[in-house]
Amino acid sequence: MLSQALGIEAEGISAGEAIPNSAIGLHFTWDNGQHGENTILKKLDWVWGNHQLLTAWPTSKAQFQARLASDHSTIVLTLAPPPLRQKARFKFLNLWTQQEGYEEVVRAAWAVEVNGNPISRLTSKLRILKGYLKAKLSHRTHDISHRVNMAKEDWQTIQHQLNMNPNDQNIRSREREACYHYNKLSTDAESFFKQRSRV
Predict the structure, then answer these.
(1) Spatial separation of the C-alpha atoms in residues 12 and 22, rounded to whole Å
(2) What are the φ/ψ torsions at residue 72 (nearest 5 degrees)?
(3) In sequence order, which residues have a C-beta less than 8 Å from that of residue 161 and are 6 or more positions away?
(4) d(C-alpha 34, C-alpha 86), whole Å
(5) Mode of pairing for the β-strands spanning 23-25 and 61-64
(6) Which of 133-149 are b and which e, b meaning 16 or more Cβ less than 10 Å from the residue's Cβ?
């Protein structure tokens, strides 16, 4: 009968695609209450979950506690929500050092008065600098691929205009500006993606 019951249980677990839940606490969950050679300790209790449960509560954990009112361990199942997504780490972009206004941003951040010991002041100023850089320069890399494509199209359009009007100095000046803008954005984009690929 026992083997038959275990077979039915195994079939049910397999059919339901059950997965053993993560567990802590006592390993042996049942005690026959006898002494000496008659003592029997067994692992009779489990906590199973399916894909849906483990997706909804990926950090769920079963705790097998010491026996009190029963010969079986009390089981406490903790259903914790998924951990909050960690805030992205700040990444200093090398291309910022080539941006217009970079040195002014650094000087402004370093000029802020902070209190504390030397190490505390240093970390505080670095934190301030991080905020300044994100506020003043991070927009330079926002949607940079799209901006490169737009600059390329603009430059190509002006080249066609210049081809139709080769003596127009205004168009010639715009073509030079568009060329510089496109090449600058292309260099920034290459530096940005190259550095990001190494992180």
Answers:
(1) 20
(2) -105, 150
(3) 168, 171, 175
(4) 51
(5) parallel
(6) beebbeebbeebeebbe
11, 20, 21, 53 from 48: Cα distances, Å: 14, 5, 5, 10
Confirm if 33 and 71 have CB atoms less than 8 A apart.
yes
- Higher-confidence position of 87 and 48: 48
CA distance 158 to 174: 7
**How many CB atoms are closer than 10 A to CB 73?**
22
Q: Are 21 and 57 in contact (CB under 8 A)?
A: no
Taking only the tens place, the pLDDT of each residue in 1-36 is: 434 444 545 565 555 567 787 888 888 888 888 877
| Cβ proximity of 106 and 126 under 8 Å | no
Residues 151, 198: Cα–Cα separation, whole Å: 26
Could you please report the per-residue DSSP string of 122-167?
HHHHHHHHHHHHHHHTGGGGTTHHHHHHHHHHHHHHHHHHHHH-TT
Number of other CB atoms surrounding residue 55 within 10 Å: 10
Residues written for the chain: 199
| Segment (H or E) for 47 | none
C-beta atoms surrounding 49 within 10 Å: 21
The pTM for the full model equals 0.41
Residues above pLDDT 70, as percent of the chain:
79
Segment 71-95, tens digit of pLDDT = 898 899 888 776 666 666 667 777 7
